[in-house]
Amino acid sequence: MISKENLLETQQRIQAFIHRTPVLSSQLINEMIGADIYFKCENFQKMGAFKMRGATNAILQLSEIEKGFGVATHSSGNFAQALALAAKLQGMKAYIVMPSNAPQVKKNAVKGYGGEIIECTPTLEARETTLTEVVNKTGAVFLHPYNDYHVIEGQATAAMELIEDHNDLEVIFAPVGGGGLLSGTALAAHYFSPDTKVIAGEPMGADDAWQSFQKGEIVLQTNPQTIADGLLTSLGDKTFPIIKDHVSDIIRVEEEEIIAAMRLIWERMKIVVEPSSAVALAALIKEKSKYKGKKIGIILSGGNVELTKLPF
């Protein structure tokens, strides 16, 4: 299990390679919701998303021999970019299996960071089969985008920083896809701010985490349909137990609620966030009556949005 000491060591290990991102607030959004809200802006992280934290921590744990063979993963977007950049900063090769329908902006970024893209058909089976072929051929170390304890430790550092900046938060909201960010956030709150509740936002069209949470066991994602392209994956056997033990609730939101929250952030805060980032705010807006007068943190997970396909 990940300990408090593991998280403190992770924070020390990765801090030279990541940005300590700013925490912003909006008077208008506070008034709309009737609460004090603090947005942890991981859209300003290197490569534009929190995933840089987990990718960096996982790479720094490799032996020199492993580093020589490089790293490999399958990802439709942000972890692909994060691993490519983290590997580049350590002078390593990164092999990234990406589905053919991944956003072009994310493919371009992976190439820009020096990652080698291997495309496959857009199914989980094809991703895993192609990845196995790449690993067998190159000897690269497979790093899972979220179901990996070192990755979870890295993702926890976003909430650790938020808690350091605002140590009296009553609630922290984060989006959930595979659960790397959510499980890390939950552990950060558990160890460093135990009175703070952690709540997840999830798209209604990809609500496997909510189903898993209700059932008490992992329900696999099937045919997810959502604009939040960073939240399409199923929970893992490492992320789910942490979420089950330390997350208070998962709130599902409709597509129009995600788009409205995204637009609100763009218009009122003047910052670029991707749809997945807006899911946490959408969840808070949906149930705002429960959170009146509270001090709330929201993790804005990333800003890698395809500008030619804005939903508003």
UniProtKB/TrEMBL annotation:
SUPFAM superfamilies xref list: Tryptophan synthase beta subunit-like PLP-dependent enzymes
Keyword Ribonucleoprotein: no
InterPro entries: TrpB-like_PALP (IPR001926), TrpB-like_PALP_sf (IPR036052)
Example GO molecular function: ATP binding
CC cofactor: pyridoxal 5'-phosphate
Domain Tryptophan synthase beta chain-like PALP: 16-302
Key word Cytoplasm present: no
Entry keyword set: Lyase, Pyridoxal phosphate
UniProt cross-references to Gene3D superfamilies, sorted A to Z: 3.40.50.1100
Domain of life, source organism: Bacteria
CDD domains: Thr-dehyd
GO biological process: D-serine biosynthetic process
Similarity comment: Belongs to the serine/threonine dehydratase family.
PANTHER family linked to this entry: SERINE / THREONINE RACEMASE FAMILY MEMBER, SERINE RACEMASE
Protein name: Pyridoxal-phosphate dependent enzyme
Naturally occurring in which organism (per UniProt): Ancylomarina longa
